[in-house]
Every structure is written in structure tokens, then in C-alpha cells.
Write a structure and sequence with these properties.
Layout: H1 10-15, E1 29-41, H2 44-48, H3 53-73, E2 77-82, E3 85-90, H4 93-113, E4 122-137, E5 142-147, H5 150-164, E6 168-171, H6 172-177, E7 186-193, E8 199-205, H7 211-219, H8 221-232, H9 236-249, H10 254-274
Parallel strand pairs: 4-6
Antiparallel strand pairs: 1-3, 1-4, 2-3, 4-5, 6-8, 7-8
Helix pairs in contact: 3-4, 8-9, 9-10
Amino acid sequence: MIATSKSISKDFLKFFGKKSAIEFEVGSQIKKSATILFCNIKNTNSFNKNMTIEENYNYTNSYLNVVSPIIKKFGGYIDKYLDDGILSVFVSTSSALSCAIAINKAIKQKNNEQKSLPMLCVGISLHTDEICFGIVGDENKKYPTIISNFLNLTSKMQDINKVYGTKIVVSKQFINSISTGHNFSYRYLANVIFEDESTVEIFECLDIYIKQKRVRLEKYRGEFENGVKSYVNGKYEDAKQIFEKVYQKEKDDKACYAYYNLCCENLGNHILNHE
């Protein structure tokens, strides 16, 4: 039997050319391009030390109970629970984006309703790539799972969420895969560089913000992206001046503030090394 067959939606089975989960055999593999969504708690350390193990367990489960149904509602397949993170797969890139926005709204509502508890802060990464979907286990109990190089990338994307205070980041591949009819607002945020020197461009999704803030961020998007490009190219003084100007215009821009501080740190390190 498939251990989690009920969690596999009909659309997901159809995507892999199957009518039922029992059609999958142990060791069988199917390669397809799909969108992977990873969501985890960004501020775990801020409240873990103030809770008992049991309280941490219950609190993490309460977060999972909010996120998991939303993923299923938008047609996602939950592949793994990784500590305080959830790795899920979507057939539709647009559905994955809508799901990410819905998760953030639900977490915000949860925080407003449970003000006596520590506030949850989640980060979401979205990437579209070829995945290998297969069955592991034995004939008595089969486990569907995905195999992808995304786990390494998602770790780096989540680090970007933490460093720049962003809520949803997406890869260039995700943007290239989303349907032309689904317009969404985004801006260039950073690069992920791997050991083989290959690069993945990362963008911040702006649709998560209220309209007033989104309009302001869009207004200064060109200047902000020029600052990012200068920073990526090691022109820290140029980048610092750009981010300072943008921040003076939009003080609720966490990524801009983070970049400004990083420029200052790099310039300081450069001076120390030069001396």
C-alpha cells in the first residue's frame, strides 16, 4: 500500500500519467518539471529558548496545522516535513504562488488571534525545476517522494529570506515558468552562487505586501535593483549611496536597510584589510 496515498491529489496523479497511487511501483521514477515550495519558520531561535520541549512541539504543530491544509487546497503535494519546514510540490506554478501568498496571510491572521504566544515569522521559497518523483520502501509500505537538487538551493534561498527580511523569494526559473496570464510584482534581490560557480538569480515577490507599500516598492524598484547589481559586482560604495537614497524615500524597505548595512560592513572590512 502507498503510505500516504490520500495526500496525493488527482491532479498530481494525472500530472504523472497515473489514475491511482497504487499504479506506482517501488523503484519506479518519473521525471517532470514542477514547482517546489518550501516554507519554514524564520524566527525559531527567538522563542525556542523560552519554551519547554513540549511547548515547542505543540507550537510547531499549530503552525503546520495552518500551513498544510492551505498547500492541499491549492493542489500541492506535501513531500516532506523538515523540522519546522514543509517541502511541497505543485503542478501549477501560478497555484504555488497563490498558495505562498495565502500562507503568509494565514500566518498573519494567526499572529493577530494569538497575541499571547510568540509571533511566527515564516519565509517561503519557490523554484521551478525538473524533479524525479518515485516510490521508495517495500511492497508492504510504499512512500512517494521527490528527488531534486532543490534542497541545496532552498537552503540558500531561505538564508536570503532571513538576511533581507523578505517573506517570499522566487528563482529566475520560477519567473520564466509562470503563465503569461498571471502577472505578479517582483524585484531582483540577490544571487545564489554554488561551488561550481553556477548562479541562480533570486527575486522578491512584492504581491505579499499591502497595496500602498507595494506601489512604493515598485516605484523605486529600478533604483533598488541598480543597488543590488552594484553590490553583486563589488562596488560597495556605489551600492551604499544608492540604498541610502532609496531608504530615505521608503523607510519600510527591510531589504534595502539590510543591504545598506552589508555595504557598510564590506567597506569597513575593506578598510581594515587595506590598513
